[in-house]
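User: Structure please.
Assistant: Input sequence and predicted structure:
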Amino acid sequence: MILSLRYNPISVSEFNTSIYSILFKSVGSAAMSDEPTSVISHRLSIMFMILAIGSLMDTRLPSYNVDAEKYHQLARATLFQNNVYDAPNVGVVQALYLMSFYLLLSDRHGTSGGSRWAIMGMAARIAQSVSSLICVWTNSTQTIYPFQIGLRESQCDIYAQ
């Protein structure tokens, strides 16, 4: 039970409402959304990381398969298409957390520990930035998007790892 909570930075219901339904509702749903394009790309990065981890854990595929690494590279390209420090949000934190988890699972020879720690450190710093921004937003008239609500759970998961 504790491990499932620790490695669950995004719940199934949150995934269905904030990622899957936005990206796959219709052909132009992502383009017609009122959210910034950086938020859409961060959600797409989360989707690719979920596909990467799913491909890596699929028992029907060979171990350390190429498809998992392709999804991982697509997630990295999508996430860093925009500057993650200028417009931090919970989607960035979730994508980085999933990337470090993927690197943990896909590490064959113990060589990716440095990049895994660097990505987790970046996720922790961005989570702190988003947390301070949410405190500022709640005291102002700016819009708080639904993807920013689950930050506290993501921060707890990051610091527990």
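The chain has one domain: 2-160.
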